[in-house]
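Researcher: Last one for today. Full complex below.
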Amino acid sequence: MQIKKEVIEVNTSKGICIYNITPQIEKLLQVTSVKNGQVLVFCQHTTTALAINEDEERLLEDVKIHLSKLAPESGIYLHNDLHLRDVPEDEPINAHSHLMAMMLSSSEVIPIVDGKLALGTWQSVLFFELDGPRKRAVLIQISGETN
Amino acid sequence: MQIKKEVIEVNTSKGICIYNITPQIEKLLQVTSVKNGQVLVFCQHTTTALAINEDEERLLEDVKIHLSKLAPESGIYLHNDLHLRDVPEDEPINAHSHLMAMMLSSSEVIPIVDGKLALGTWQSVLFFELDGPRKRAVLIQISGETN
Amino acid sequence: MQIKKEVIEVNTSKGICIYNITPQIEKLLQVTSVKNGQVLVFCQHTTTALAINEDEERLLEDVKIHLSKLAPESGIYLHNDLHLRDVPEDEPINAHSHLMAMMLSSSEVIPIVDGKLALGTWQSVLFFELDGPRKRAVLIQISGETN
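Model: Here's the assembly. Have a good evening.
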């Protein structure tokens, strides 16, 4: 059994952006000798998220529109009343980003079979920035059998 | 430690259908000797999903109605403009299915305790077809201690 | 490798309530000797859920309002027609709670790095009661290397 931890850094753009981080994860997997096991992908932020789906440019625009309908940035949120909270001066107005993050997921677990990510043909690991631009960290933990 | 991979095949019906795959997972677990560990259930498709909840027929109808309200098939989606994408002739019109899949989950992890799935009384593993009919594959990875 | 199972019990209040169970998980982790691995947090109920996000009081109120908009308690649901189902007399009217649970998650997997939960600065493990008051069980499975 081997357990290895790595970090993928993503410098994100403004607002909501979606990044396909599958190639980076595959590269990290290749340098381990894990043959059967799992990759745990874990966001260390409360306004980012993960999903596994198709990396098709027009679909990713649909997802952004969909999330913005369910939790509009222009909505009225208690979390955005900064004057009622004890916060630093540069605190962002981002309740909608937190709500979107909770509708998606903070982590994804992907099986490793024969040394490869067992993703289906159209599946990619998508990292969602929901309150950019920021410097973000995605933790990648690879574990399994090496023989 | 043992890690074992199996595949459950599901031939789905038209549109949105929900299948309780708990019995198949339990059968696969029984033929391993894993006593403590985890079952990772992983969909290899971008228009299917998983959830753990109650297998009650009227509730499952409510879930379908709920998903269809949040991401209606009749909605206007960029992904559905097939003439603007480089796709085969039989490409499905299924942006709503992708959005539903992202609101649910591509995977579920269930603890194994004393050789059994540690599901609560009312919990079942539900596989969602969101763009049927199709032949679908659900990967089951069982890992843990065998003593 | 070590795999250890524990249960956190939560006596919940009426309706929708959110509990930060991070301190209990950290306490359980401290008494193991796992240095690198994972904590699997798993709800054994169909009207509770988990999310990892910020434990900020006003944000948690926003989340409750958000969930109640997407799946209102006052909505019309087939699951709530108790006279058409074979149920005990004290069966709750809780279709909305099941739908909310499915929009969130039944489980969360958190990496353990250097003997600690690898949560980001603002991340907490949040347990959602969606149909309280009840006595609830959250299963905690800690697994990994002990050296």
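The radius of gyration of chain C is 17 Å. The helical segments of chain C are 22-30, 57-70, 95-103.
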